[in-house]
Amino acid sequence: MGGKQDQNEVYGKPAKYDPFFRGPIKNRSCTDIICCVLFFLFVLGYIAVGLVAWVYGDPQQVLYPRNSTGAYCGIGENKDKPYLLYFNIFSCVLTTDIITITQNGLACPTPQQVLQSLRQELCPSFLLPSTPALGRCFPWSNSTVPKLPGISNTSIAQGISGLLDSLNARDISVKVFEDFAQSWYWILIALGVALVLSLLFILLLRLVAGPLVFVLIIGVLGVLAYGIYHSWEEYRVLRDKGASISQLGFTTNLSAYSSVQETWLAALIVLAVLEGILLLMLIFLRQRIRIAIALLEEASRAVGQMMSTMFYPLFTFVLLLVCIAYWGMTALYLATSGQPQYVFWAPNVSLSGCEHVPMNTSCNPMDQPVNSSCPGLMCVFQGYLSTGLVQRSLFNLQIYGVLGLFWTINWVLALGQCVLAGAFASFYWAFHKPQDIPTFPLSSAFMRTLRYHTGSLAFGALILTLVQIARVILEYIDNKLRGTQNPMARCIMCCFKCCLWCLEKFIKFLNRNAYIMIAIYGKNFCVSAKNAFMLLMRNIVRVVVLDKVTDLLLFFGKLLVVGGVGALSFFFFTGRIQGLGKDIESPQLNYYWLPMMTSILGAYVIANGFFSVFGMCVDTLFLCFLEDLERNDGSVDRPYYMSKALLKILGKKNEVPPGDKRKK
Predict the structure, then answer these.
(1) Is residue 491 packed enough to be buried (19+ CB in 10 Å), middle (13-18) or exposed (0-12)?
(2) What is the DSSP letter of 372?
(3) Mean pLDDT by 10-residue block, N- to C-terminus, for the chain (664 residues)?
(4) Which long-range contacts (CB under 8 A, 24 or more apart) does 652-656 make?
(5) What residues pair up with 341 in beta bridges, in sequence order?
(6) Where are the transmembrane segments (predicted)?
């Protein structure tokens, strides 16, 4: 008794009965107003950054090639001249340190205007057959190249071949486009199959959740048992041979450890421990497993009653696309802000007449020739000026954009979680289902969340954003210092990364449950997070069991949907399904794996969207179930709202008022 009191004191007192509580509270006020104002001001600043980028940026700089004077190829006056010609392509091939692919595009210091080069008597001494790549003309890798003094034909051919291998994706892109053009209809059918399978799996859980969970658990036990048997056989064989780790010693070849007996002995012990833990859980936690199964069945019924919730992830997906597209365009415009800059350049500054030419100084491309005594002197495009307020603040503006990307994405995800939690909570707290369920639970929850709790969602999203930004910075530092680190530094960096990963997972878990409490009671973020955490800690064993059972079931569902669509796509696009008729034939493809992988990826996205809704439903109903146990006792005045299956498992029942023949 004393232990139970101490637990209640540590993790808070159970929720008290409220005679006026009937589900998500309708009379509520705005929460976390300061965070709401801060978020709106930040969004306004984010919009201002986008406007500044739009005014000063020019994405054409990375979309179209430019000639020596800075004129674009393929647009404006040069609309009928889409390709850029390098007159001395070997200066690109043989001086690869000059080639830079940055915000300035592909820079190569060669004359790039035919008429201008003719006037300056800079015509090429030879011509090579060429092919377009990224809007630029490059010689064929098998072209016959002329003999140049001091340069071998092999090095030239290798340089051209390497340049084409890294840049010329035209043929592949055309084939990819052709494959998509011939298979898009079948890809859509595959995605439709994934949608139907996901929906059927969730809706059928009310009938097969119990048997399916036990089959999956038995399957896991079987896999572990086979692993124990296989480890024992390998250990026995290696033990008889006398293969020991002392003979092998330390090696970085991890596959070598599979030939020593200690490896299989360790695997045998670990698998045996896991098998024992799982068996003990089945014996001593079977009641809680039954509760978890009943909640899964109840979640399936809730989804069936509110089918609109299954398609809410489409709205979230659209919002996420808007956030990512806005950030991408803003970053692109910021990266291409600035005026073009031109400098003097010559292929060989050591030649006579070039000693006194101020190389790499500013010039005007329209004033050539400036110094005819220097052979090949040109005024070439170098880059874009970094002067000016916007250019000097470019790094800070990009950082602001990255912060805006993370914060807005996390806010959109938080909005979806809170809205779905409000809808599913209204299902649980409806005493007579479906009569007492609100008419439009999803839209009501959306308007309620957007009106009162934008600040709370922004608060939780900001906390998560700061942790994610810290992880990005740590990954950047680790990548930059990877070549110079010693083993101790790598170990410390790995520990920091692991700690931040665990912190991010915990904050996501806490935020998710905090949004559920916000949707139900309308409190601010901190109070909701505290109440959710205390409630879960008072029922920690049930939390663990439900979480693992749900994870196992949803993993199997995703495997079923993605694996089924992947198998069908493979057999269809490879032409291995025969007898479908003349009207249904496999398309002739260049790369059959392309539509197959597209179908698999799309199936995963669809399944993940559907199952994320179902997972949110399970978590919401679970918190409501725990609150129901603490608030009510089954009396006439305080009846339980849980389903009859849960009441039966717990050995509880609701008292029926005199003269009322209805039963809960």
Answers:
(1) exposed
(2) T
(3) 51 72 81 94 94 79 65 71 64 42 47 48 56 64 49 53 51 67 81 87 82 84 89 82 63 63 84 90 82 86 88 90 91 76 68 65 62 65 63 81 94 95 91 83 92 94 95 86 73 88 94 94 92 90 84 84 85 70 64 81 86 89 88 84 84 69 44
(4) none
(5) 383
(6) 33-56, 184-205, 212-229, 264-285, 311-335, 405-431, 452-474, 514-537, 549-573, 593-626
